[in-house]
Known about the structure:
Blueprint: E1 14-18, H1 21-24, H2 37-42, H3 60-74, E2 78-82, H4 85-88, H5 98-113, E3 117-123, H6 129-133, H7 141-157, E4 163-168, H8 170-179, H9 194-212, E5 219-224, E6 228-230, H10 235-250, H11 276-280, E7 286-290, E8 295-298, E9 309-311, H12 327-341, E10 348-353, H13 370-388, E11 393-399, E12 418-420, E13 427-429, H14 431-444
Parallel strand pairs: 1-2, 1-11, 2-3, 3-4, 4-5, 5-7, 6-8, 7-10, 10-11
Antiparallel strand pairs: 8-9, 12-13
Helix pairs in contact: 3-5, 7-9, 8-9, 12-13, 13-14
Amino acid sequence: MALPPLPAFPTGFTWGVATSAYQVEGAVDTDGRGPSIWDTFAHEPGQIADGSTGDVTCDHYHRYPEDVALMSGLGIDAYRFSVAWSRIQPDGTGPANPAGLAFYDRLVDSLLAAGIDPVATLFHWDLPQALEDGGGWMDRDTAYRFADYSALVAAALGDRVKLWITLNEPVVHMTYGYAMGVHAPGRMMLFDAFPVTHHQLLGHGLAVAAVRAHSGSPVAIANNYSPVRACGDTAADRAAVAAYDALHNRLFTDPLLGLGYPTEIDFDLSAVHDGDLDVIAAPIDGIGVNYYNPTGIRAPDEGHPLPFEMVQLDDYATTGFGWPVVPDGLRDALVTLTTRYGAALPPLYVTESGCSYPDVVGPDGDCADPDRVAYLDSHLRAVRAAIDEGADVRGYFVWSLLDNFEWAEGFSQRFGLVHVDFDTRIRTPKTSYAWYRDAIRQAHR
């Protein structure tokens, strides 16, 4: 059954799609690119669910003209991609690798020629392995190396990039990569990983200045937000909810807006030096909201290593990943940011919104994904509802343009508007591609 038309969105609203370097580019040994922590991690036995790696994945590095044509066919306003740090500085330091910069130069020019605004994320989890060998984000020097790298990219791409994003989901990189060990670099440090939080945020603040020295385009950061659902009504449950909200939703937002670190969790703040919080709170032009689902929380049992316990929310349909489908959670996230931070909050962009399902290309050559169509429709309506409640939301980026290497899940989870055969790299637009194209056309009328 056809869905009713979407409600109108504000004039100038940005319609986009998103990817990230390690997930789509491939070409890991091409043109002087150095190894990243994900190259190392993905080749360790048992780390990736299906044993795959990002060595080739979608081969976007070589097939980007085809992918830009797919974006052009969608009619999007903007493409959010990430720059692979180890393509620009193979060891994470030193002068720029000209061949690495040349790839992004070609990509950006191709996007502009197609009438698509380039939105560049400078760090999407693929730290150069050489920097990890020196301590990674646990080491303060990495923040300064990130600023140097950001300056190289901004100097090369300048105002051709229409929106810069410094970091992608630093809370996920900290928790999954350093606290829990399920993502690269695979460290299991729990709350001892707090320096990773601080050094990423310090790197963000330094990168804001570095980018602005070379580009007049706006600068933002993309955070993951998950509204918290209390699974219990005791004082201990409420304390657990506050602790999780502080860790996941406020830890990487409060400091950006001059509020310092939340106090609901007793972090060791010895990594914080005088003046750091001022650097972190440098004015920014936007915050990206990556939303997938809310999180159920209750008080932990005695002896639990964390001050909260996560609970599966069972009253909802789920994606192929097993994540609950809760469109109102996106409205909640956007409105909560708006009411929590008030006038201090810069404009918001939904920089990731999407879902995985086990999509297959049928005998007729079509790839039907009605569940994704319903998902995107309901989440866009949630964004419109948030705007009606006062949230200043400027754009929406679907995750993702392409099926890709989905981190620890390998190729087992498909998020794309376009199906990718990972043996042949053949691209097949899904039903959701046509639906999103038509939604954009309607919005542009």
